[in-house]
Amino acid sequence: MPDSIYFDREGRRQDRRWVNSWSPQQISHRLKVDFPDDESMRISHEAIYQALYIQGRGALKRELVACLRTGRALRVPRARTSGRGKKFVTEDVLISQRPAEAEDRAVPGHWEGDLIIGLNSSAIGTLVERTSRFTMLLHLPPMPGHDGTRAKNGPPLAGHGAAAVRDALTEAITRLPAQLRKSLTWDQGSEMAQHAELRIDTGLEIYFADPHSPWQRGTNENTNGLLRQYFPKGTDLSRHTREDLAAVAAALNGRPRKTLGWRTPSETLNSHLLSTQNGSVATTP
Question: Based on CB atoms within 10 Å of each CB, which residue in 115, 137, 206, 267 is the most buried?
Answer without folding.
Answer: 137
